[in-house]
Amino acid sequence: MKEFAKLKILIIAVMLSISGCADTEEIALYSRSDCIVKVAISWDVDGIERVKTMNTLMDLILDYQEAEHSGELLSGLAFQKNGSEVYLQYGSDCEQRENNARDLFSGPVHEFLDGKAHFHITEEKVEPGIDTISLQGEGWID
C-alpha cells in the first residue's frame, strides 16, 4: 500500500512539473527587434496635406488595431524621416509581424492612401532606437 501511495505522489509530481513547463512555453518573450516592422512610404502629397494624411493614417491604424485586436496586438507606431518610414512595434504574435502589418495596411488604410502615397512592408530586421521606434516594457526581453 505504501508503494502505491509513493507511486501516486510521484505521478502527481510529474504531472505538475509537465503542466508547469507547458505554461512557461506558452509565454513567448521576444526581443524588440523581433517585433518591429518597417513600412516604407513614398508620398504623392507634400506639406500640410502630408501632415494631415499622416495624422489620419495614424488614427486609422489605431482604430483598426482597437476594432480588430482589442488594442492588444500593436504596441506602438512611429513616423520617421519626414513620414517616409513608419515603424510598427508589436507586443505579441511577433513571428507574424509582417503578415499583421499586411493585414493592417490592406482594406481601409490602403483605400485611404490611394492617390496620396504608396507603401511597401519590408522584411528587414529592424533594431530599436531613436531613428526607428524604441518602446520598452515587460513584453520584451531587452
What do you see in this structure?
This protein is of the alpha+beta class. It has a domain at 32-121: Alpha-Beta Plaits (2-Layer Sandwich). Helix content is 44%, strand content 18%. It is built from 4 helices and 4 strands. It has helices spanning 2-26, 47-69, 97-105, 108-113, and strands at 36-43, 74-80, 85-90, 117-121. A 4-stranded antiparallel beta sheet has the order 2-3-1-4, with helices on one face. The radius of gyration is 22 Å and the shape is globular. 18% of the residues are buried.
Task: Annotate the secondary structure layout.
Elements: H1 2-26, E1 36-43, H2 47-69, E2 74-80, E3 85-90, H3 97-105, H4 108-113, E4 117-121
Antiparallel strand pairs: 1-3, 1-4, 2-3
Brief descriptors of the model:
142 residues; alpha+beta; Alpha-Beta Plaits; 4 strands; 44% helix
Could you tell me how far the N terminus lies from the C terminus, measured between alpha carbons in angstroms?
Answer: 52 Å
- By CATH reckoning, the class of the domain at 32-121 would read Alpha Beta
SS-based structural class?
Answer: alpha+beta
- What would you report as the Rg, rounded to the nearest angstrom? 22 Å
What is the β-strand count?
Answer: 4
Low-confidence stretches: 4-26
Helix and strand pattern: HEHEEHHE
**Biggest sheet character:** 4 strands, antiparallel
User: Strands of the biggest beta sheet: in what spatial order?
Assistant: 2-3-1-4
- Mean model confidence by pLDDT: 83
Name given to the CATH homologous superfamily of the domain at 32-121: EIF_2_alpha
CATH-derived topology of the domain at 32-121:
Alpha-Beta Plaits
Q: Tell me, briefly, the overall form.
A: globular
Task: Quote the beta fraction.
Answer: 15-25%
Helical residues, percent: 40-55%
Please name the CATH architecture of the domain at 32-121.
Answer: 2-Layer Sandwich
Helices, by number, come to 4
